[in-house]
Amino acid sequence: MSRVVMKFGGSSVATSEKMKKVSELILKRKSEYDDVVVVVSAMGKTTNNLIALANELSDEPNKRDMDMLLSTGEMVSASLISIYLNSVGHKAIALTGFQSGFKTIGEYSKSRIEKVDTERLESELNDGKIVIVTGFQGMNELGDITTLGRGGSDTSAVALAASLDASCEIYTDVKGIYTVDPRIRPKARKLEYITYEETMEMANLGAKVIEPRSVEMASKYSVPLYIALNTGDVKGTYISTEVDNLEKSAITNISKIDGVLLVSMSEQLGVDSKITECFVELAVQNINLDIISHSLDDEGKPITSFTSTVDNKSKIDSILNNMDIKHRFTEDVSKVSIIGTAMRNQVGVAARAFKVFLSENVDFYEVSTSEISISYVVDSVNALKIVNALADEFNL
Ligand code: ADP
Ligand code: ASP
Ligand code: MG
Asked: Where among 195, 216, 240 does a domain terminate?
C-alpha cells in the first residue's frame, strides 16, 4: 500500500485562493497514492498575530492557555481545506492533533510527541478519505491541548509519516533546500540531494526551511523526506542517509542566526564553584546556552563567556546580578556557520574560511566547531557580507 504525508506551511495556506491551489496538488497525490494525509500550519502570520493579541492582554500569558490559543490557528486551516475538498466532491475530513492521536509529554509551548495512536486515522483512511491534520499540536496526559514549539508542524508531519509508514513531503514557499537561504543570497543553488545529518545541522544553525526535530525524527525512523515548492511542479530536494556524489564540495550550506547575545563574565570564575553554580542556575531557569568558552585575560584572570539569544537578556542579567557576577553583554551579533559532511575528509576547510574573514576584514568574537560545521560569532552588521564571501569561496 502506498502512502504519503504532505505538509503545507503557513505561507502555502495563507488565503482561500492558496488553499484551492494546494488542494489541486493534494488531489493529484490522491490519484497516485492509496492514502494521503495532509498536515497544515496556521494561515499566514496567524500564529504571530495570536501571540501579539495575548501580549496585549498580559505581560506573561500562561503557557497552558497560550497552547490552547495557538492551536486554533491550525484548526482553521485544516477545516477550511477539508470544507473545500468536500465541496468539490472529494471525501475529506479534518482532525485536530488530539483526534489524530498525538500524545505529548513535557512543557506547554514546547511539548514532545510521545506517540501517535493512529486508530482513528487508519479508519478514516480505510474509508477512502483524505485526512487533513492540524500540525503543531497534541494532547498531554492531563487532557490539555499542547503545542510543539515554533515550526512544529514539520515534526507533526514526520511523526505521522513514521507512524503510518509513509513518505513525507514538506511543501513551502521556496523550491527546496538551497546552499544558502535564497532570500539572502539570490544566486544560491538548490540542492537535489542532501543528507539528514547536514539538514539537521543547518536547521539547528539557523536555516528555517525545516524544523530540526523533524529531521532528527525522520533520520531515526528512516522516513523518506522531500522538500519542495507548494505548486508541486518544480523538482525539490531529497533528504537521505548518504549522498553519493564524487563532486560533492566540502561545504554544503551556510546558515545564519541573528539575535544572538554574547555574555562575558569577568568574575574570578573557574577556580571556585561559582561557575558551576552559575551554569546550574541558568539551566534551572531554562536558559539555552550555546558556545561556551573559557580563557585567561592579559593578567591571567579567567574570562568565561557564552552565547544565548537576546530574548533571554533580562533573565540572564538578573541571575548574574543575584550571584554577584560581573558581566558584559554584546548585542546585535549573529552566528554564521559553514556546514558539510565532506569536511570530515577534507583538510584546509577552516584555513580557507579564516582567510575569508581576513580578506573581508571582519572580526569574530567566538568560533566553535562540530565534526561537520564551523560557526563564527560576528557583529550582525557584517553577517550578510561574510555569508556571501564564504559562499563565494566555497562556490555555493
Ligand atoms: P513554512 O511556512 O512553509 O514552514 P518557513 O518560512 O518555515 O516556511 O521556511 C521556508 C523559508 O526558509 C524560506 O522562505 C527561506 O527564506 C528559509 N530558508 C532558510 N534557509 C534556507 C535554505 N538553506 N534553503 C531554503 N530556504 C531557506
Ligand atoms: N503555526 C506554527 C508556527 O507558526 C507552527 C508551524 O507553522 O509549523 O510556528
Ligand atoms: Mg516552517
From this structure: 240
* Residue after which a domain boundary falls, among 181, 208, 240: 240
pLDDT at 248: 63
User: What residues are paired with 339 via a beta bridge?
Assistant: 253, 373
CA–CA dist 120, 139 (Å, integer): 15
248 falls within a domain: no
Q: Distance of CA 249 to CAs 207, 231, 243, 252, 395, Å?
A: 19, 30, 12, 7, 8
Split into its structural domains, the chain has a count of: 2
> By residue range, what is the domain housing residue 119?
3-240
Ligand nearest to the CA of 47: 2
Residue 198, in any domain of the structure? yes
Ligand 2 mutation pick, 102, 134, 136, max ligand atoms within 8 A of CB:
136
Q: Do residues 48 and 110 both lie within one domain?
A: yes
Question: How many whole angstroms separate alpha carbon 395 and alpha carbon 191?
Answer: 13
Task: Compute the Cα dihedral for 216, 220, 221, 225 and give only its sign.
Answer: positive
Considering the domain architecture, whether residues 306 and 182 belong to the same structural domain is answered as no
96-143 pLDDT, tens digit each: 999 999 999 999 999 999 999 999 999 999 999 999 999 999 999 999
Q: Do 196 and 263 fall within a single domain?
A: no
174 CB within 6 A, ligand 1: yes
Q: Given the C-alpha cell 540572564, which residue does it identify?
A: 316
Would you give the DSSP letter of residue 166? -
* Cα–ligand 2 centroid distance for 280 (angstroms): 31
* Nearest ligand, measured from the Cα of 228: 1
Q: What would the pLDDT profile of 377-395 be if each residue is shown by its tens digit? A: 999 999 999 999 999 999 9
pLDDT at 284: 92
